Amino acid sequence: MNKSVLKERESSICDRRESPRSISCERESVSGAVSQRACVYCGARVVLNPITDAYHIVHGPIGCASYTWDIRGSLTSGEDTFRNSFSTDLRETDIVFGGAKKLTAAIDELMEKAVPSPKLIFVFATCIVGVIGDDIEAVCRLAEKKYGIRVIPVKAPGFSGTKSQGYKLACNAIMNLIRPYAKQPKRFGINILGDFNLAGEMWIIKGYLEKIGIPVISTITGDSSYKTLIQAPSAMLNIVQCAGSSAYLAELMETEFGIPSLRVSFFGIEDTTTSLLRVADFFGKMEISENARKFAAEQTANIMPVIEKYKPHLEGKKAAIFVGGGFKAISLIRQFNELGMEAVVVGTQTGKKEDYEVMGTLVNSNAVILDDANPAELERFMTEKQADILVGGVKERPLAYKLGMAFCDHNHERKHPLAGFEGIENFVKEIHKSINSPVWKYVC
Amino acid sequence: MLDLTPKEVKERSALRINPCKTCQPVGAMYAALGVAKCMPHSHGSQGCCSYHRMVLSRHFKEPAVASSSSFTEGTSVFGGKANITTAVKNIFEMYNPDIIAVHTTCLSETIGDDLNSFIIDLQIPEGKRVVHCNTPSYVGSHINGFFNMMMGFMNYLTGKTGMPTGKTAIFPGWVNPGDIRELKRIAKAMKVNTVFFPDQTGVLDAPMNGKYEMYPEGGTPIEEIQNLGDSNGLIALGEITCVEPAELLEKKWKVPFTLLPMPVGVAYTDQYVMALQNQSKHEVPAELETERGRLVDLMLDSAQYTTGKKVAIFGDPDVVIGLTSLALEMGMIPRYVITGTPKEEFTRKVEELFSQYATTGCTVKANADLFELHQWIKNERVDLLLGSTYGKQIARAEDIPFVRAGFPVIDRYGGPLQPIVGYAGGIRLVEQVVNALLDRFDRDVADEDFEIVL
Questions:
Q1: Which of A143, A177, A211 is the last residue before a domain boundary?
Q2: Which residues of B touch A95 (CB under 8 A)?
Q3: Which CATH class is domain B168-284?
Q4: Chain B residue with minimal CA distance to A382?
Q5: Are A372 and A349 in contact (CB under 8 A)?
Q6: For residue A116, which residues of chain B lie inside 8 Å, CB to CB?
Q7: Under CATH, which number does the domain B287-447 receive?
Q8: Which of B360, B396, B356, B352 is nearest to B377 (CA)?
Q9: pTM of the model
Q10: What is the ipTM of this complex?
């Protein structure tokens, strides 16, 4: 390894030529690294944020509320409450004397005036709240009693683990919300977990399922609300799109409500089709399975001409992938394979060992796989492997451009859906638009 | 859509809704990026660093590189000394900056990390530097973080040799690279030999050349910061942002300073030009006088559409003071003027402007938020909104024309490359304001009143 890689980081990088399988992941980042990773609070916040009618109060100094105000493009068909930013904006005196009083007062001020009247409040405790000794659980309990609504504490100090830890906290908060409704009779229908309705993707998946005859009871958390969430325990199956954030919730729901789960991915033809068929077959009803097969075949037939149209412009190009979760990375490798492209660098922020093993089987022998990569490593490997395009998030976009590489945002800043068959068309077009932009001609 | 805001205004003391500020560390990071070959370092949890880089990347559409101490559960108990020690070693080994600029976070402040002593104990490679400043997120706003980092650099690096550099130091305050370029151009026209600190030109508007540089060409060189004490004088722009750094340089090395508002609009740019003239004793060149004339000409040409129009202005204190001054020069009524930064000095400055133009019935507030501004607008409409991207929800809900300026602007392109300061910046702003108003006029006007010529 050359100098652009810290010694402590070497075990988190797997060069397929050197060591085909083992990678060190799910570790804390190295101090001093320019990591692309976020924190526990961020993990909890992004999962709960799309609950449309919840009041998300960030208890801490202002920054954590500012940076997450309307942070992801989660679309809503109902309330817009979640698109506002609420915070206790803790000041120095609060740090000295404690912030619990201010939190109580903030909840009171919200209850007095907010329209629509709050039914559900999440209180996020950031880094210093535990350190200054605020008992936010007690504050939330008292507020619940006083107002007869749900006020759920999410103790998410940024330092208490990785972003994945924050996902778990969010899952626990959701369980806290729906547990009182555990005893509902089961009915025919499923929940979709781990989709956040970015650019309306949840609507696409929901539409597919309903078309093949499977009702969707609750969506967690994209385009969800208090009312829809509490119906979740009545579902017969959970399907999990973003496993990184929501596999844990599925486990909890299986243990407590007896709802089995299936891991799905609606990115790319192969994974979308497989996912639809697996969900349909779960119910063992001929008609639904038939519908799913027919639907997937129709959609594939529709989308193939689009792929064929763009394939000549993309074939043989090399892609680097840097996304949050491992499952998405896997889908993306498959999608690039479908386009005749090759994934040469694959990295995730929170991938699991199993994910990295699957990736290892999908990429060519000269690809590099990284856990929690930083810009220096990304730069080194993308340049070394001569990637033509990087798929990543907001912090990676300018890096890719500076390296003279095309870019596709597969994160919060995607502006059109990339899931389902519609998403395939958008994805292919975006890849094409970026790789083959005339602007590249002028880069010297 | 997005219209939860009730009309009835009620005082809030505990709940902040839709903030018009953020926390100190991001300001420190932005200031540090204005120093050559500098790695900003966030001494706290990883999310802080990640969020700050994200917002800077979104505003500048550029990579914003910074490292983190990556605090863990153990750190919050035992302190962050081990983290900073490992971090500094790793950063020099791996990223090879000339200098690391450490800023604290709410967490490292609350657990009482003593960066002064930590840094003394560090093993720093020959020729390399580590500086720090304290940026408790629960004090002030991102503006405090910006000037605290400036002072951190100055505390560690400045000295006085007694050999005058012959240069005038200029603190541009929190502005875009496009602004700094314009301020430099004016100084050059005035024949003043300057050093700008900090200076993000070249760093956060790096050109596209197919290469990625972790430290793009740009930023104030370390030697220039070291020599600040030998400057001829100092012009500090931004009365809120730059007052403390200016006073520090005067206190430490007796460098006399002129503190001016951010030079937005005619009057404030005149003040900047005059201050430069004081330094060089050089005539104002025809080039600048002509530019000024063009700005005034444009203001007059378009005055019929701007005079009497009500505008709400929000953002960071110095940029808001500048925009308010320009709005008044254009005959507009700055009906609401707010900043999220808790500085009462801001209120006083804006009230001075109101009385200078004999404007009554306008409201100014520091430590305010955008929810409150929205409520005011619901009670009395304005014709134009002027501020950062975070105004777009109000603009849409109330259907008000909206001109973006300040920080952050994360939904439009090209802004950071262009100035709002100087006569050229004035021309750009007047054009944007007038055209936003006229676009609205053309959109709303009845068919029979729709005209080709305006």
A1: A177
A2: 106, 110, 136, 138
A3: alpha beta
A4: B212
A5: yes
A6: 4
A7: 3.40.50.1980
A8: B396
A9: 0.95
A10: 0.95
